[in-house]
Design brief:
Blueprint: H1 5-35, H2 49-56, H3 62-71, H4 78-88, E1 95-96, E2 115-120, E3 123-128, H5 132-136, H6 142-149, H7 154-159, H8 176-192, H9 215-224, H10 227-236, E4 240-243, H11 244-251, H12 266-276, E5 284-286, E6 290-293, H13 296-347
Antiparallel strand pairs: 1-2, 2-3, 4-6, 5-6
Helix pairs in contact: 1-2, 1-8, 3-4, 11-12
Pfam families: Myosin_head
GO molecular function: actin filament binding; ATP binding; microfilament motor activity
Region (Actin-binding): 184-206
Length: 348
């Protein structure tokens, strides 16, 4: 019920993770169809980039204004920080405060004067402004970092690289919010170089008990995690896509015209292959560089046919090898019989 600076930066990280989820699933998925020339009706979804910008913008973001309050001379309190937020973020559609210049929330009794509220992608969260400045300014003194770096234990020394005398920086150490923002940026950069697989966990109830499902809680999570939009995109789109060359290489043994070698463009080979297998036209689409398959059952059918064909080819190879081996043995015995007979006639 009481959210402070710690929950604020945790929710900021959740916003960034949701943003990369949107980028890699909803946005990139639909852009690929357009890029490949596939007929597609755009499905709308909520992009939380506006919330991330509210928090991390270098000029008007909440973290930037918090750092500015911590660094500026004069009397600095949590109230002055909130006052600054009320001035800069008053008209932002995801920021709410009783004291802002915007009069929308002047009579909102659910929002105390010493709090502000952010409409996150997963719902509204109210933050108690008390302690924000002190917690953001809670820095480790430079002499303590140097003392830790001089420790004989290698792990402790590695945890405080800023204590290295060769790297002494006379500038003020970064605030807690700045360090967390930099860590989140590093995490996002790392995730964007990977090919992630998402597992969405739904909390069935608040009691941490088995066999209890709170319908309202589950629906709330499904709605705000972006799962409905994701399901719409997946159902309207294609379950599988692959480049023409790897697709032809994998399934070319299913068609006599493409096996063992196809002389021509890979796309033409895939077209011949799918026509030979009599796959319904509504089950696939040809993009500029990829083949798109709509339903998983079509892919499963291809895999089953490939598995059966590999077994048939293995049987064929075994049959030919056994025939060659038997014929080779027969020819050797026939040659030996002729040699023996010729020598026998010579001495008879």
């Amino acid at each position: 019920q009481d959210n402070s600076f710690e929950q604020f930066i945790i929710n900021y990280c959740n916003e960034k993770l949701q943003q990369i989820f949107i980028e890699l699933t909803l946005k990139e998925e639909q852009e690929e169809y357009i890029r490949e020339g596939i007929e597609w009706t755009h499905i709308e979804y909520f992009n939380n980039a506006i919330i991330c910008d509210l928090i991390e913008n270098n000029q008007t973001g909440i973290l930037a204004m918090l750092d500015e309050e911590c660094l500026r001379p004069g009397t600095v309190t949590d109230d002055t920080f909130l006052e600054k937020l009320n001035q800069v973020c008053a008209t932002h559609q995801h920021f709410e405060s009783r004291m802002s210049k915007c009069s929308r929330f002047l009579n909102d009794t659910s929002l105390p004067h010493s709090c502000f509220r952010i409409q996150h992608y997963a719902g509204k969260v109210m933050y108690q402004v008390e302690g924000f400045v002190d917690k953001n300014n809670d820095l480790l003194y430079r002499d303590l970092s140097q003392a830790m770096w001089k420790a004989s234990h290698s792990l402790i020394k590695a945890l405080f690289p800023e204590g290295n005398p060769a790297k002494i920086n006379l500038k003020r150490p970064p605030t807690a919010g700045s360090q967390f923002k930099a860590s989140v940026a590093t995490l996002m950069k790392n995730l964007q170089t990977k090919n992630p697989n998402y597992i969405r966990c739904i909390k069935p109830n608040d009691k941490k008990a088995a066999h209890i499902f709170n319908d309202a809680l589950v629906c709330h999570q499904i709605r705000y995690l972006g799962l409905l939009e994701n399901v719409r995109v997946r159902r309207a789109g294609y379950a599988f896509r692959q480049g023409y060359e790897p697709c032809l290489e994998r399934y070319k043994m299913l068609c006599k015209q493409t096996w063992p070698h196809w002389r021509g463009p890979a796309r033409a080979g895939v077209e011949v292959l799918f026509n030979e297998l009599e796959i319904p036209e509504e089950e696939f689409s040809f993009g500029r560089s990829k083949i798109f398959i709509r339903n998983p059952r079509t892919l499963f059918k291809l895999e089953d046919l490939r598995k059966q064909r590999l077994e048939d080819l293995a049987t064929l190879i075994e049959k030919i090898y056994r025939g060659w081996k038997c014929r080779t043995r027969f020819l050797l015995m026939k040659k030996s019989q002729i040699v023996i007979a010729s020598w026998y006639r010579r001495y008879a």
